């Protein structure tokens, strides 16, 4: 009997020592499998979403910052990528890379809607939800478009310049990539409004193809060729940046009206280089992108068009 009691005491002592060692090992190696299973089950699954911009441009920094804030709240990792300058082939390679990485969702502002359609469908076939923002690619299986009605945005720009020029005058227009659907729609809306509702003459429209050097050179050329113009209208952020640089350098007092609210355009409004900005509430796109991809991952219903609205901003 005495031997049996001693044996039991020895077992209890050994078991206690082993427990003590296990606790110390868990403290030193927290990655060891000592975490309670119920706690592990409550940790949210980390998802990876890709955001593909048409080019590297400061105008997209604000969208990225807001997307990152929302992503952090929902334990989402973001892969944000863009060609250095607007380039279809680079955007295609970025899209292909994200499909190979099997990300959990992709948001893209396509440089060329038709050229990127096959890749958007390929991603969908691989169970990767795809949404478009800023510029749509409607002829494929993309789930949704986040942005504003770009035709209506162009018309709003026309209404604003019409009010400034009282229905008469001469304007020059700068825009970005010739194959980008959003820019074509903005230009169409602008020209339709001006032709139908005003006597304003459009002297020249030029494309910069997403390159700031081109935008500066072309704007200087338009100003030299048409020195009596009344206003410059910018349909993209690159044309807007070019006008700000030139207006700062020359001190020009001609009207500049721009599409796209950025930190740069807001400062230019205050400083007098830009008179009017037509905003599509771009500062809200980042949040909308992440939350829409989360809904897509959870297989919740998503509207095909998420309208962020249009706002006219002046000093």
Which short descriptors sum up this protein?
315 residues; alpha/beta; Rossmann fold; 6-stranded mixed sheet; 49% helix; disordered N terminus
Structural description of this entry:
With 315 residues, the chain is of the alpha/beta class. The protein has two domains: 45-148 and 283-309, Response regulator (Rossmann fold), CATH 3.40.50; 150-279, 3-Layer(aba) Sandwich (Rossmann fold), CATH 3.40.50.2300. Helices cover 49% and strands 18% of the residues. The protein contains eleven helices and twelve strands. It has helices spanning 2-28, 37-42, 61-73, 88-100, 113-125, 150-165, 181-197, 212-225, 237-250, 263-271, 285-297, and strands at residues 47-52, 76-81, 105-108, 130-133, 144-147, 170-175, 201-207, 231-234, 255-259, 276-279, 305-307, 311-314. Strands 2-1-3-4-5-11 form a six-stranded parallel beta sheet, sandwiched between helices. The chain has a six-stranded mixed beta sheet with strand order 7-6-8-9-10-12, sandwiched between helices. Helix 10 links the parallel strand 9 and strand 10 (276-279). Helix 3 packs across helix 11 (285-297), helix 4 packs parallel to helix 5 and helix 6 (150-165) packs across helix 7 (181-197). Mean pLDDT is 88; it is low at 1-43.
């Amino acid at each position: 009997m005495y031997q049996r009691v001693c044996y039991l005491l020895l077992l209890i002592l050994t078991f206690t020592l082993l427990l003590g060692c296990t606790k110390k090992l868990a403290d030193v190696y927290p990655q060891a499998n000592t975490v309670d299973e119920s706690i592990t089950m409550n940790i949210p699954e980390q998802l990876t979403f890709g955001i593909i911009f048409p080019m590297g441009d400061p105008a997209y920094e604000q969208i990225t910052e807001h997307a990152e804030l929302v992503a952090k709240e929902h334990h989402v990792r973001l892969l944000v990528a863009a060609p250095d300058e607007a380039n279809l082939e680079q955007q295609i390679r970025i899209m292909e890379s994200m499909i190979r990485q099997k990300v959990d969702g992709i948001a893209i502002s396509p440089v060329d809607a038709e050229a990127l359609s096959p890749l958007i469908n390929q991603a969908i076939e691989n169970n990767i939800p795809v949404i478009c923002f800023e510029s749509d690619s409607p002829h494929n299986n993309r789930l949704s478009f986040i942005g504003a009605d770009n035709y209506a945005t162009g018309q709003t720009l026309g209404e604003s310049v019409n009010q400034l020029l009282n229905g008469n005058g001469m304007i020059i227009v700068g825009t970005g990539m010739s194959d980008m659907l959003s820019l074509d729609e903005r230009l169409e809306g602008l020209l339709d409004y001006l032709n139908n509702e005003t006597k304003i003459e459009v002297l020249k429209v030029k494309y910069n193809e997403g390159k700031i050097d081109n935008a500066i050179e072309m704007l200087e050329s338009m100003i030299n060729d048409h020195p009596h113009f009344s206003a410059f209208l910018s349909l993209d952020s690159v044309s807007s940046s070019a006008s700000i640089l030139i207006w700062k350098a020359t001190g020009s007092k001609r009207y500049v009206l721009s599409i796209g609210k950025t930190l740069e355009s807001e400062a230019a409004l205050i400083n007098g280089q830009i008179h009017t900005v037509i905003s599509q509430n771009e500062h809200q796109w980042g949040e909308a992108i992440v939350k829409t991809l989360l809904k897509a991952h959870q297989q919740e219903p998503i509207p095909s068009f998420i309208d962020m609205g249009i706002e006219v901003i002046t000093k």
